[in-house]
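Blinded run. Sample ID left blank on purpose so nobody reads anything into the name before looking at the predicted structure. Input follows.
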Amino acid sequence: MKRRNFIKNTAATSALLSISGLALSSFTATKERKITILHTNDVHSHIDPFPENHPRNPSMGGVARRASIIDQIRKEEANVLLLDAGDIFQGTPYFNYYGGELEFKLMSMMKYDLATLGNHDFDNGINGFYAQLPHANFEFVSANYDFKNTELSGIVKPYKTFIKEGIKIGVFGLGIELEGLVDKKLYKETKYNNPIEVATDVTKTLKETEKCDLIICLSHLGYDYKNEKDKPSDLKLAAATQDIDLIIGGHTHTFLDKPVIKTNKVGKQVVINQVGAYGINLGRIDFYFSDETKYISKEKNIIVI
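Blinded prediction complete.
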């Protein structure tokens, strides 16, 4: 998709979409509660905006601009979660020089709530990632990476829950297979488990044990692989599971001009969103809850920075 067309296509719409399997006609006049999910993926250490003469992304992105937009949204909305779907590291000299310290400090200043790990977050090894964690005032989740016998054992949890205005939100992470992407000496004894099988178990826990009203997956699996039919992806994850409401994707640097809606294995709808790469866009998904249903607004789903 050409950049000009992409930006044009991000114009806001006002359509509403039910994701609970209940018709919107069942919506009553009870108090409505709103949860705003902001998200990034594959920022790749891009701290500064692209230069004005950049051939593809002139003057786009930049942490300061993102922080300003996030601050403004937090002033307007009471219940905000800020999430990242991985590949925070690697891509500019900032990472080569500071090793991830700057990225984590800036994300902490922006008050990120949670993130998952991408394959490039292992580029300085598990030791390097672990060494930067004191600079992160937020946690990491990954359900299908088994970090037993590594420095991250017991530190990176499968999921985390939040409560916003009585709405319980469960967020879990999934990572891509590291073999073939990352040198074994960098990820050490980390074991990769089948993400779809793990997601089935974790979402059951979040739904039945944790009693979550909203379940979000931070996925670094990739949006889709047309030429690799057996490779797990966000589209396959949505179709093969039953309790995920929102998949925030990463890895494939997919610029979606609006969220994609897929039907899960029990006929309910799953929202998938991914906002490209390099901090050019900030994703926004607004969920509305009443006593009888929940639905999302497609308005302002991608904010161009």
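Unblinding after everyone has recorded impressions. The radius of gyration is 18 Å.
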